[in-house]
Amino acid sequence: MASVSQTVRRVRVRPNYETIAWKWMRYSAFAMIPLVWGHMILQDVIVGVHRIDLDYVAMRWASLFWRVYDTLLLGFAFAHGVNGLRQVLNDFIHGERARKVMNWLLFLFWLIITLIGGTALIAGVNRAFPLS
Amino acid sequence: MSELKTTLAGYVTYRGREGHWSFLLHRITGLGVVLFLTIHIIDIAFVYFNPVLFMKAIEIYRSTLFGVGEIFLVFCVFYHGVNGLRIAYLDLFKPQGWHIESQRRSVRWTLVIALVLWLPSAFWMLRNLLIHNYGLFGG
Ligand code: HEM
Ligand code: HEM
Ligand code: HEM
Q1: Chain B from 24 to 43: CB within 8 A of any A CB
Q2: Across the interface, do B30 and A81 touch by the CB < 8 Å criterion?
Q3: Is the ipTM here above 0.85?
C-alpha cells in the first residue's frame, strides 16, 4: 500500500486541552486492561455478588495494596469514562456556549462522584453505623 | 433538536459496514459501562456513608435480572477493552494501518477475541446464578 503510506505525514500540533484528552483516552487504555479486567474477573466472576458483603469489603480494604489498586481504578476508569461521555456529547452539542456549560457540568459530575468514591476508600467500612 | 435527529439518523442509516458496527458497539458499550460505574462507585461508597443501604444494594445485585445484566456488562467491558486496545495501538503506533481492508479484518477479529474471552466468564456467572437463585447443581 505505497499510496497509503505517502498520505501519512507528521503534523505538529501545539498541545491543547483536546489533544491531551485524546492522548489520555489512548494511554489510559493500556493501564485499564489489567485494572478493569482484573477487578471485574475477580469480583464478578470468581467471587460473585453472592459472597460480597460488608465483611468482604472490610477484609479487602484491610490491605493497602487493594486500596491503592481501587484508587487507581477509580482514577483511571471514571476519568476515562466521563471524558468518553464528553466525546459522545460533543457529537450532539455544537454551540460554543452550550459546550462550555456541558464541560463544566461534566467536570462537576466527575469531581463529585470521584470525591464520594475517594472518601469511602479513605474512611473504609463504617462500623459505628447502627445496622438494624 | 434537529442536530440530535441528524446525528442519530446517521448512526442508523450510515452503511460503513464493519467500521460502522465497530464504532456503534464501542460507543454503546462505553456508555453502558460509565452508567454502571457511576452507580457502582456510589453503592460501594455506601459501606462508609450508609452500610444498611449497601446491603440493600447488594440484595438487588443478587437478583436474577441484575445477574443477567452483569453477564452483559462483562461482555461490554471485554469488547470495549479489546476494541479500545486496537484503536489505541493503531492511533499511537501504526496510523498507516487504518485502511478499509485491514479494518474489516481486524474488526471481525476483535469481536471473535471478545467473545472467546467472554464465554467462559458468562458460563461461570450463569452457573453461579442458577446455583444461588434457583438451587440448581446442588446449590
Ligand atoms: C478496559 C479497558 C478500556 C480500554 C482499552 C478503552 C479504550 C478506549 C479508547 C481507545 C477510546 C477512544 C475511542 C475513540 O476516540 O475513537 C474509548 C472511548 C470510550 N470509553 Fe473506553 N476503554 C476501556 C474501558 C472503559 C471503561 C471502564 C469505561 C467506562 C467507565 C469506558 C468508557 C468509554 C466511553 C464512554 C468512550 C467514548 C466512546 C465514543 O466516543 O464513541 N471505557 N475507550
Ligand atoms: C458487577 C461486577 C463488579 C462487582 C461485583 C464489583 C465489586 C466491587 C467491590 C466489592 C468493591 C469494593 C472494594 C473491593 O472489594 O476491592 C468494588 C470497588 C470498585 N469497583 Fe467494582 N465491581 C464490579 C465491576 C466493576 C467495573 C466493571 C469497574 C470499572 C469499570 C469497577 C470499578 C470499581 C471502583 C472504581 C471501585 C472503588 C469504589 C470506591 O472508591 O468507592 N467495578 N467493586
Ligand atoms: C453518523 C454519521 C457517520 C458515521 C458514524 C461514520 C462512520 C464512518 C466509519 C466507521 C467509517 C469507516 C468505514 C469502514 O471502515 O468501512 C467511515 C468512512 C467514511 N465515511 Fe463516514 N461516517 C458518518 C458520516 C459520513 C458522512 C456524512 C460522509 C460524507 C458525506 C462520510 C464519508 C465517509 C467516507 C468517504 C469514508 C471512507 C471510507 C469508505 O470509502 O468507505 N461519512 N465513516
Answers
A1: 27, 30-31, 33-34, 37-38, 41-42
A2: yes
A3: yes
Which of A126, A52, A120 lies closest to B55 in space, CA to CA? A52
Identify which of B127, B135, B28 has the alpha carbon closest to the alpha carbon of residue A46: B127
Rounded to an integer, the average pLDDT of A9-17 is: 79
Q: What residues does each domain of chain A span?
A: 18-123
Range of the domain at B85: 16-134
Given CA atoms A69, A73, A76, A79 in this order, what sign does their dihedral have? Answer: negative
* Chain A contact for B60 (CB, 8 A cutoff): no
Per residue in A22-79, pLDDT (tens digit) is 888 899 899 999 999 999 999 998 999 999 999 999 999 999 999 999 999 999 999 9
Could you report the per-residue pLDDT of B88-130, keeping only the tens digit for each?
A: 999 888 888 888 888 888 999 999 999 999 999 999 999 999 9
For the domain spanning A18-123, the CATH number is 1.20.1300
> Would B99 be classed as within a structural domain?
yes
